[in-house]
Write a structure and sequence with these properties.
The protein is α+β, with helices and mostly antiparallel strands. The protein has a domain at 5-95: OB fold (Dihydrolipoamide Acetyltransferase, E2P) (Beta Barrel). It contains three helices and five strands; from the N terminus they run E-E-E-E-E-H-H-H. It has helices at 86-95, 109-112, 144-171; strands at 5-9, 13-17, 24-28, 53-60, 63-69. The chain has a five-stranded mixed sheet with strand order 1-2-3-5-4, with no helix packed on it. A hairpin with a 3-residue loop joins strand 1 (5-9) and strand 2 (13-17). The longest helix is centred in the last third of the chain and has 28 residues, at 144-171. The chain is elongated.
């Protein structure tokens, strides 16, 4: 992080004179502010001193290209707002292009053509099979709540029938 001067301002960013070096670094307009910047000339002018952080060094065509950022540095104090480069990594992930797989057809032939080792049927694997090798099929057991409700209803029917029987006996 250092406090250099702005050398030139272009439509895509600003070139910064790096102190103690003849090189210049570029602050792209996406790295000038956390807000969207359409015209870098509205943010900085030639000769302004701004706090910048070196975010990338790249060798291209035997030339060293330096990328700088203003948005990860507090412009008042020069304090690093992103010491672990978390927001820079997030920005890089956002820039990655999404591959479109809609043109590729998905076929389920691999699963549909499989034969179960337990029952010998097509379309499922042995670990997903609910059939025993002898041919006996499993059936689902009703849940406990349903059994309790049914049992409670059966007990009420017995009590009411006993009460009806006792009232009939009294009348006789």
């Amino acid at each position: 992080i250092f406090l250099p001067q702005v050398a030139t301002v272009t439509e895509y960013g600003a070139f910064i004179k790096i102190p103690g070096c003849r090189k210049q670094g570029l602050v792209h307009k996406t790295h000038m502010s956390s807000c969207r910047v359409d015209k870098p000339s509205e943010i900085v002018d030639v000769g302004d001193k701004v706090w910048v952080k070196l975010i990338r060094k790249e060798m291209k065509d035997d030339k060293l290209k330096l990328s700088l950022s203003m948005k990860v540095v507090n412009q008042g104090t020069g304090k690093d707002l992103d010491p672990n480069n978390v927001s820079l990594d997030q920005d890089e992930r956002k820039k990655r292009t999404f591959r479109d797989y809609t043109s590729q057809k998905i076929t389920l032939e691999a699963v549909l053509n499989t034969v179960c080792k337990k029952c010998g049927c097509k379309g499922h694997f042995a670990k997903e099979c609910f059939v025993q090798p002898g041919g006996t099929k499993y059936s689902l057991i009703p849940e406990e709540e349903e059994e309790e409700v049914a049992a409670a209803g059966h007990e009420r029917d017995k009590k009411t029938s006993l009460a009806d029987d006792s009232s009939k006996k009294r009348k006789k």
